[in-house]
Amino acid sequence: MALKNVIGIDHAVVMVKDLDKAAENYRQLGFTVSPRGTHSAHMGTGNYTIMFDPDYMELLGVLAATEQNAPARAFLDRQGEGIERIAFTAVDSAAGAEEIRARGLAPIGPTDFERPVTLPDGAVSAAKFRTFMWPTAEAPGGVRIFACQHKTRETVWIPELMQHANAARRIKQTLIATPEPAQEAAHLGRLIDRAPKTEADGAVTVPSGGDRADFVYLMLDQLGKRYPGVPLTGLSERGGAALVLVSGDLAATGKALGSAAVRSGDAICVPPAKANGTLLAFVAG
To answer: Which segments of the chain are extended strands (E)?
Structure first.
């Protein structure tokens, strides 16, 4: 039976070494970036969000070393910048944690935290969350998974932050490189009770649930064949990741990306070296 308290992909977390520089980089790529947020002290992290509908990207940086962010720091040391984890939307994080506990997995959390938010009218509010994580070792393809319950959606999905010069609308796919696509997809399928499907090129897709983005596990050379001409320098053979983003206007995408754009088939891409360790591929919506 599918998990009742967890639905599809909520957001992708891009770990970065210099948070403010990363935010400026993404602004230069035509994204509208939120004001900087600072999480609760026990989290030790800060972030910028890039809001879509119904999902988003998060640029995450470590501000102070804490027990909570030890895995994120280990990722930066081991792999450098890039997608470190993927969040699902949690209907109820406490109930979701108990669901995976009943399946023999020890959840991390639920953990409550918040960050201050400056609203468009200048008022200051807070974005509040309750999350739980699958065990750190349960990271299909080297990418951790967790679930995020939004207690204050109105302070996260702010309309002014959802309009992007590059016409990005939502995440269509999360592509994760691994030498063993079928094995890693089966692993994720067991964790979220979803059935993998093998694609024509040997990649394996796992639906995340609802109308949300799919996970796709594939070898690094398969990723290269999907996006010929795009340099993959910096992507790890296990855990290197890409986001396929739906664009509402590819002409606007190309204009906003400028010299960072690499056209590849029907997609306009940004190589990982120019997007903080993450391959971005924009496709028509």
So the answer is: 6-15, 37-38, 45-51, 56-62, 82-90, 108-118, 124-133, 144-150, 168-177, 197-198, 204-207, 214-218, 241-247, 262-264, 267-270, 279-284
The strand pairing partners of 13, in sequence order, are: 58, 85
Residue 165 token pair: 């010069």
pLDDT along the chain (285 residues), means of 10: 89 97 98 90 92 98 93 93 97 96 95 89 93 95 96 95 98 98 98 96 96 97 98 95 98 98 98 98 96
User: Nearest CA to 211 among 54, 103, 100?
Assistant: 54
* CA-based nearest residue to 13, from 41, 50, 38: 50
User: Tokens representing 119?
Assistant: 């609203």
Distances in Å between the alpha carbon of 277 and those of 16, 127, 204, 213, 271? Answer: 8, 27, 22, 20, 8
Distance CA 117, CA 95 (A): 27
Contact predicate 256/269, CB 8 Å: no
